[in-house]
């Protein structure tokens, strides 16, 4: 993985010596780590016939606590998804009998999404598998390394969040 990122970096140094390509290392590694972690988690989910997307829906419901029920809007917000992106996941999970769409008791025009007993069983088995994969991947860093990584990633996320907030503020002030 590192060799591929180094090769890309070297190519940019050769092809565009006027531009500092050093960010390529960081962003390249982030991208490669994401791809490899996703593949390993997908492997862990395969025996349950879940994808990362369907797993995320089931975990959102499971985290909500009994009776493991949320509105589609709450699930979409929790997963940063559009309504259309969520609908396909809900359809697949409903076909697998892992969730049910039920009328909202206080407003029968709206629906709630709730884990079925089969959905509760499968997610309760899948969660430890995924957490084990994540733990195994982080273990070589040791506790101190994991804390340092978390600290630096949090700082980086805060920088990005700040830039996005500034962009929204700037966009809102255009034309004032």
How would you describe the overall organization of this protein?
The protein is mainly α. It has a domain at 1-48. Helices cover 70% and strands 10% of the residues. The chain has 7 helices and 3 strands, in the order αααβααββαα. The protein has helices at 2-15, 23-45, 52-63, 72-79, 83-95, 117-138, 142-173, and strands spanning 69-70, 99-104, 107-115. The chain has a 3-stranded antiparallel sheet with strand order 1-3-2. Strand 2 and strand 3 (107-115) form a beta hairpin. The longest helix has 32 residues, at 142-173. The protein is globular, with a radius of gyration of 21 Å. The N and C termini lie far apart (48 Å). 11% of the residues are buried.
Identify the notable features of this structure and list them briefly:
176 residues, mainly alpha, three-stranded antiparallel sheet, 10% strand
Strand content: 5-15%
Radius of gyration: 21 Å
The H/E string reads HHHEHHEEHH
Helix/strand/pairing category? mainly alpha
* Helix segment tally: 7
- The overall strand count is 3
- Strand order, largest beta sheet: 1-3-2
Estimated helix fraction:
over 70%
Largest sheet: 3 strands, antiparallel
Q: What form results from the Cα inertia axes?
A: globular
Distance between the amino and carboxyl termini: 48 Å
Low-confidence stretches: none
Task: Report the mean per-residue pLDDT as an integer.
Answer: 90
> How is the quaternary structure best described?
single chain
């Amino acid at each position: 993985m590192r060799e591929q990122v180094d090769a890309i970096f070297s190519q940019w140094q050769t092809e565009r010596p006027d531009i500092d390509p050093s960010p390529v290392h960081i962003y390249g590694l982030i991208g490669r780590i994401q791809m490899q972690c996703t593949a390993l988690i997908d492997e862990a989910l395969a025996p349950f016939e879940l994808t990362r997307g369907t797993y995320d829906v089931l975990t959102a419901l499971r985290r909500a606590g009994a009776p493991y029920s949320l509105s589609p809007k709450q699930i979409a917000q929790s997963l940063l998804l559009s309504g259309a992106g969520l609908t396909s996941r809900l359809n697949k999970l409903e076909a697998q009998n892992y969730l049910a769409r039920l009328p909202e008791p206080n407003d029968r025009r709206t629906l709630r999404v709730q884990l079925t007993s089969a959905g509760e069983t499968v997610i309760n088995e899948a969660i430890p598998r995924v957490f084990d994969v994540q733990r195994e991947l982080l273990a070589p860093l040791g506790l101190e390394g994991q804390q340092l990584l978390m600290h630096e990633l949090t700082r980086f996320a805060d920088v990005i969040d700040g830039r996005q907030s500034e962009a929204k503020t700037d966009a809102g002030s255009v034309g004032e």
